[in-house]
Amino acid sequence: MIVFPMSNSLELGKSIAKKTGAKLGKLKSELFPDGEFHMQFLDPIKDKEVVLVQSLHPNPNDTLMELYFAGRTAKELGAKKVTGVVPYLAYMRQDKRFHAGEIVSNNLMAHLLNTCLDRIITVDPHLHRVHNLAELFHIDRKKITANEAIADYIAEKFSKFDTVIIGPDIESYQWASRIAEKIKFPSSIFLKERFSSRKVKVKVMKELEWKGKKVIIVDDIISSGHTMIEAIKEIKKKKVKEIHCICVHGVFAENAFEKMKKAGAKTIISCNTIPHKSNGIDLAEMIVEQL
Ligand code: R5P
Questions:
Q1: Are residues 62 and 179 both part of a single domain?
Q2: Is the pLDDT assigned to residue 101 strictly greater than 80?
Q3: Residue 240 Cα to ligand 1 middle (Å)
Q4: Which residue has the least CA distance to atom 3 on ligand 1?
């Protein structure tokens, strides 16, 4: 096995190679003056199991294309098997034609990956209207969840006697409620209405003992941060002690991290599926178990 960390996952890729004991491969990737990619495998890969580690954020378009080029080329060069470790799978949220004429990008992203990989391993892909990766991928696929690692993090840093866990929308029950059940913390899920990609409203569905509590909001993705910010605003009305935010994938578009801090988040922690200063939960071990 030879592991190639790609542009968005250099640290995670190296850590995966180290933990598996596989050879750490070098894949040169640079831009021609006109902006086109020039890429080259600097290690022989014929008859090897090639692992490409590439998260699809930041720059989802370029990094998807880079992964596609690398996967197709690895196959052309005779790799025995090409596995894509794609910790953050972009384009999963556009899972239906919400407005006439729109692209449904989850299908199109999957079409590209189906043709360049033999297997995909990803972390908590945003499965909403599509319930299973098998609806998108015909190659071997494995979905890993960060729930256990997040639950361990919360159990280590907080106590169930003065902390509650919140999911900011119905879909977040898959993380917030399951994590809360696992470590036996009280929890509640909010109801979210989305008006546009930058405008959401949330409201409390189930009241809890809020006063003087530490509140942890858990979601899969923080993108513009508006979901978290609206949840923070609601929670602040309850006279709680502290508010903390945890996500699997910290996209943090448009200074979301700073905006959330300003809104009142005491800490903001993400898993290392996307490199960011908020990375506080390491998933390398979980990924390696699947290789
Ligand atoms: C959507 O349903 C996801 O679970 C997240 O709640 C959403 O992607 C967060 O987006 P934003 O940070 O832009 O509000």
A1: no
A2: yes
A3: 23
A4: 221
User: What does R_g of the chain's alpha carbons equal in angstroms?
Assistant: 20
Q: Provide the residue count of the chain.
A: 291
Q: Is residue 211 annotated as part of the catalytic site, yes or no? A: no
Exactly one of 75, 143, 182, 192 is catalytic; which is it? 192
Let me know whether 266 and 185 are in one domain.
yes
DSSP state for residue 212 in the 8-state scheme: T
Tell me the best of 227, 247, 257 to mutate to test the pocket of ligand 1, counting ligand atoms within 8 Å of each CB and taking the most.
227
Average pLDDT over residues 68-96: 97
Spatial neighbors of 103 by CB under 8 A, at least 6 apart, are 94
Same structural domain, 6 and 125: yes
- Summarize pLDDT for 186-243 with one digit per residue, the tens: 999 998 888 887 888 888 888 888 899 999 999 999 999 999 999 999 999 999 999 9
How far apart, in whole angstroms, are the C-alpha atoms of residue 24 and residue 264?
42
140 and 215 in one domain? no
For residue 17 and ligand 1, the question of a CB distance below 6 A is answered with no
Q: Do 77 and 162 lie in a common domain?
A: no
Indicate the top mutation candidate among 221, 230, 278 to test ligand 1's pocket, ranked by most ligand atoms within 8 A of CB.
221
**172-176, 191-195, 277-281 — which is least confidently predicted?**
191-195
Distance 124 CA to ligand 1 centre (A): 13
Contact 186, 164 (CB under 8 A): yes
Q: How many domains does the chain have?
A: 2
**Closest Cα to residue 278, out of 265, 291, 263?**
265
Closest residue to atom 13 of ligand 1, CA basis = 224
Ligand 1 binding pocket includes 181 (Cβ within 6 Å)? no
User: For residue 62, what are its two tokens?
Assistant: 């370029």
